[in-house]
Specification:
The complex is a heterodimer.
Chain A: H1 3-18, H2 22-26, H3 30-49, H4 54-64, H5 74-92, E1 97-99, E2 109-114, H6 123-131, E3 144-148, E4 172-176, H7 185-189, E5 195-197, E6 203-205, H8 215-219, E7 225-227, E8 242-244, E9 256-258, H9 263-266, H10 273-277, E10 283-287, H11 294-301, E11 303-305, E12 317-321
Parallel strand pairs in A: 1-8, 2-12
Antiparallel strand pairs in A: 2-10, 3-4, 5-6, 7-9, 11-12
Helix pairs in contact in A: 1-3, 1-4, 4-5
Chain B: H1 9-21, H2 25-51, H3 66-79, H4 82-90, H5 94-97, H6 100-121, H7 144-171, H8 178-204, H9 217-243, H10 250-280, H11 287-294, H12 303-322, H13 329-347, H14 349-355, H15 371-403
The chains are: A alpha+beta, B mainly alpha.
């Protein structure tokens, strides 16, 4: 670590602290010293990898010291979203719009999957990867599709690696992803409250607050979570620029991510990308609190079941048979 | 109580550093080797700092590997100090009283290694301050990991401060006041059990992982720790006995052997009970155990590992129990070393990795640590050994002068 860089780091910290803002209230007393110390390490660490302008460093400091999203005021949420948009422009030269739309009142999202109809085309997987800016380098996928033998109903007995022409006679297909459990083991496990259930039922991760311990991944009975083992890579022209803070924005290295029911779309009244992409109409998504919704129709009139019901996690994801 | 002129807290630390910098040539070479080991660790970690955990062998399926395995095992080594603390302070066993400080030094070293393994395993070590209550958001009491952070740091504090107080008193040439430290000793005994139970609950509390979701996990952790920990302490005492002028009474070794044998037998009984449950009538919850002991569809990287561990464990326990060499250290010490390694193999990788295989959706993959993981682990082990040697050397010099 060169002394020059340290000095640079110090000036930036002073800049940040001098500025009268809510951040200042947050970092009071002894925490200033401790935090600034670790920040100095952080700065040299990050700037060693790629030299950054003073303006960019300042944004990074402010990002580093921000709160957990769930306890931010609306003003703070707006500030961080603006900073993230500016950083995206500075670092990757992309124009993104990061939203922080709150949950809509009287909405509780639920999902149903028709195992009679699905033919295993995996259009949903492709749409999900594209919509959610999933890492192309390690081929991260939120959705898994399993080819099932007749007589089985548990995806863990199916083949999740199939690569051939579909549909195959006498086989059927089951999809699995994050089930947004009402009693989610991952939320209970997280030591920093970096993952929680929003009022509209979506289980989200604050990618910046996550410390990357992966306890939630061990706790998930459905293999619903994915970790950023390295730096995510998405070709610039393929980036989905309409983003949400809790959704498809760029995930930092070493943080957990997962399906968010396409929070950036569904909170604006659109369907998740997987539902929209499905060519067979096997995927049903909607508001569980709306008695006229399609998902309520399915739950009332079809034979439905949930995966690993015995664990008591109460997924908001049902399989059904026509 | 007489005050010693020219001695105070400052000279206590200065002397501790001075004594540790001096030493024979072989000792200096040993220290340099440890430094080189730590250097390798830092070099390996620099790759992880730059490219993330992608340079490890871990994946979304086997999301915990060598680091967490070593962490889990070393919590046991730290907890095992209680097997010296309990007789020494509670039953006033004079033999154990002379070695208890060494046991506590080992506990401190083990805890520092535990915390280091947690930090290197984190994807966002710079965000570790999110865990600090008050500044961050601490998910207590819901998250067992939050409990683990508390109990590990608390135990580190207890095991550092009580011996520090006793040593400082002795350094100043006065008796340590038992009324002052006894409550903390009580607390640390309770705490030693808690660190291991909480670490077991970390795994035991996950219904997603049937291999771990097993009420025997906590008690078995304790039994294996009380076998492996005292085995390590026996080895360290033997080294101290043969290389320094601080002589250890043979009675200590006999008592430690009894502790090891009893714990190891209880551990094997519980292992047998677990194996019976998994294999008498295998269910789909037994797949991890089948993977571990027999392999599935050609994925069998852990099969030789676990069988080596179980057979070495059994053999070492028998040797320690029947004592064929009639207290010959050339028989007992290797047995202790083998037992320690066998428990490390089983309570480390043999416990953590199969718990994650197959994935909750039934996929089976193998896990092998990369050179980065091995290098970082070497660095952390060298750090731990360095800490132990610094603490023990200081303690022994002070104790020996005090005894004279």
């Amino acid at each position: 670590m060169s002394s020059q860089k340290q000095d640079e780091a110090k000036t930036t910290i002073e800049d940040v602290l001098e500025k009268p803002s809510s951040r200042r209230k947050f970092l009071k007393g002894a925490s200033i010293a401790a935090a600034a110390g670790s920040a100095a390490v952080a700065a040299s660490y990050m700037s060693a990898a790629d030299p950054a302008s003073a303006g960019e460093l300042k944004l990074r400091w402010q990002e580093y010291f921000k709160k957990n999203y769930r306890i931010m005021s609306q003003e703070e949420k707006d500030e961080t979203v603006t900073r993230l948009e500016r950083l995206a422009k500075m670092q990757d030269n992309v124009d993104v719009q990061i939203g922080n739309e709150p949950p809509v009142e009287k909405v509780l999202f639920g999902y149903a999957f028709n195992i009679t109809r699905c033919e295993g085309f995996m259009e949903c997987v492709t749409a999900c990867v594209k919509e959610n800016n999933l890492d192309r380098k390690t081929n991260t996928q939120y959705i898994r599709i399993f080819e099932m033998e007749p007589g089985q109903l548990d995806p863990s007995t199916g083949d999740g690696q199939y690569y051939h022409k579909v549909p195959v006679d006498d086989k059927f297909y089951m999809g699995a992803q994050c089930f947004h459990c009402e009693k989610a083991p991952c939320i209970k496990a997280c030591p920093t409250k970096a993952t929680w259930k929003e009022p509209d039922g979506i289980v989200v991760v604050d990618y910046n607050w996550c410390i990357g311990c992966r306890y939630c991944q061990a706790a998930c009975p459905y293999y619903g979570r994915r970790f950023n083992w390295g730096k995510g890579e998405v070709p610039k022209e393929e980036i989905t620029t309409k983003q949400h803070y809790l959704g498809n924005r760029k995930r930092p290295m070493g943080k957990m991510e997962k399906c968010t029911f396409c929070i950036q779309r569904t909170r604006k009244g659109k369907l998740p990308a997987c539902v929209e992409a499905c060519p067979t109409g096997s995927r049903v998504f909607g508001n569980l609190l709306d008695p006229d919704s399609e998902i309520r129709y399915v739950l009332k009139h079809k034979k439905v079941f949930r995966m690993k019901e015995e664990i008591g996690t109460q997924p908001k994801f049902w399989y059904f048979i026509d | 109580m007489k005050a010693v002129p020219g001695k105070n807290l400052k000279t206590f630390f200065v002397d501790a550093i001075r004594w540790n910098l001096k030493g024979s040539i072989p000792f200096q070479i040993f220290r340099i080797l440890l430094l080189i080991g730590m250097g390798v660790g830092i070099y390996a970690y620099s790759f992880q700092a730059r490219y993330g955990l992608s340079v490890t062998g871990m994946t979304d399926i086997v999301s915990w590997g060598f680091y967490i395995s070593n962490f889990t095992f070393l919590v046991g080594v730290a907890a095992a100090a209680v097997m010296l603390i309990l007789p020494a302070y509670m039953f006033h066993d004079p033999d154990f009283h002379r070695v208890v400080l060494i046991g506590e030094g080992v506990a401190v070293g083990a805890l520092i290694m535990c915390l280091s393994f947690i930090v290197v395993d984190m994807g966002g070590p710079l965000q570790a301050w999110h865990l600090i209550p008050g500044i961050g958001l601490f998910n207590f009491p819901s998250s067992i990991l939050a409990w683990d952070v508390l109990v590990l740091n608390g135990y580190l504090l207890l095991n550092a401060l009580v011996p520090a107080y006793i040593l400082y008193s002795h350094y100043m040439g006065r008796e340590a006041d038992e009324r002052k430290y006894r409550p903390f000793v009580f607390l640390s005994i309770f705490w030693a059990f808690s660190i291991h139970m909480v670490t077991a609950f970390l795994y035991q509390g996950l219904p997603a992982r049937p291999f771990w979701n097993n009420p025997l996990m906590g008690p078995r952790f304790l039994a294996s720790a009380f076998a492996a920990g005292p085995a390590l302490i026996t080895l360290i005492l033997a080294i101290i006995h043969s290389t320094t002028s601080y002589k250890i009474d043979p009675k200590v070794f006999n008592k430690l052997r009894m502790i090891i044998v009893i714990s190891a037998i209880i551990n094997l009984l519980m292992l047998f009970s677990e194996i019976f449950k998994e294999f008498y009538f295998p269910t789909h919850h037994s797949i991890s155990a089948i993977y571990l002991f027999f392999g599935i569809d050609g994925h069998n990287s852990l099969v030789p590992w676990i069988w080596t561990s179980v057979s070495v464990n059994l053999a070492a326990t028998l040797v320690l129990a029947f004592n064929p060499g009639k207290n010959n250290p050339k028989v007992l010490l290797p047995a202790c070393a083998f037992l320690f390694v066998a428990v490390w193999m089983e309570k480390g990788i043999g416990l953590i990795v199969p718990g994650l295989i197959p994935s909750p959706l039934g996929e089976i993959v193998d896990y092998l640590p990369t050179w980065v993981e091995l290098g970082v682990t070497l660095g952390i082990l060298c750090l731990g050994i360095t800490v132990v040697t610094w603490l023990v050397r200081t303690a022994l010099i002070i104790e020996q002068r005090y005894e004279d």
